[in-house]
Amino acid sequence: MSAVNPPGSPKTSLVPPPDAVAPVRHAEAPAPGTALGAHYDMCFGCGAGQPHGLHLEARAGEGVSVTAEFTVKPAHQGAPGLAHGGVLTSALDETLGSLNWLMHVIAVTGRLETDFLLPVPVDTVLHLDAQVTAVHGRKIYCSATGRTGGPDGPVAVRADAVFIEVKVEHFIDNGRSEEIQAAMDDPDQVRRARAFEVNP
Ligand SMILES: CCCCCCCC(=O)SCCNC(=O)CCNC(=O)[C@H](O)C(C)(C)COP(=O)(O)OP(=O)(O)OC[C@H]1O[C@@H](n2cnc3c(N)ncnc32)[C@H](O)[C@@H]1OP(=O)(O)O
Description:
By secondary structure, the chain is α+β, with helices and mostly antiparallel strands. It has a single domain (19-167), classed as Hotdog Thioesterase (Thiol Ester Dehydrase, Chain A, Roll). The protein is 21% helix and 26% strand. It contains five helices and six strands, in the order ββααββββααα. A hairpin with a 4-residue loop joins strand 1 (57-60) and strand 2. The chain binds octanoyl-coenzyme A. Residues 10-12, 39, 45, 93-94, 97, 100, 106, 108-111, 137-139, 162, 164, 166 line the site of octanoyl-coenzyme A.
């Protein structure tokens, strides 16, 4: 039988280890109900300036949780009239990523596992919610659901994920230089990044 994690690969379990701790909402996290806005105007998930994007709008929830809505457009089809699974996973990923705002931590997706429970037709408004369940060192364990027909409707998609905390250098060192330079020349973008660097 092959090993789940071959030598040299990271441990990728989505189950928090026994000594994981509860997530802490940052003292300056936006109040529940506050729109979080985009972390980057050209983001495929949340950027208003991204013409090909999902234009997801997330709001702070209680504790370390967020809610968001995503409207499935014709450009998001996989099968005729139905949302593409990868697009739905992107919506879940973006919603999970916006949990960063509540902990004032910069983190990127390490692993994300999606369950597709119901087909999602074009024009559907997917009601998303996400929460952090546990933290272990730099690993942030979180889950998200997407419901149709309203915030209490049936669950169409759900995901469990591990996000990994990173420094702002993760982006500066790895992003394409044009976009990094433009972001660093934009005082609003720099302010947003700085807000995440200061932990209590
Ligand atoms: C600003 C926010 C934007 C939000 C947008 C929406 C979210 C996104 O889509 S982000 C984009 C997609 N994600 C990426 O591009 C990430 C690409 N991957 C990487 O850069 C690296 O693999 C990275 C940073 C995740 C981890 O690398 P590195 O910093 O070297 O971590 P490393 O030291 O190996 O591991 C740290 C811990 O995380 C764990 N870990 C690492 N990778 C994974 C993984 N894939 N799954 C689970 N756990 C992992 C390790 O096991 C280790 O745990 P422990 O501390 O218990 O030993």
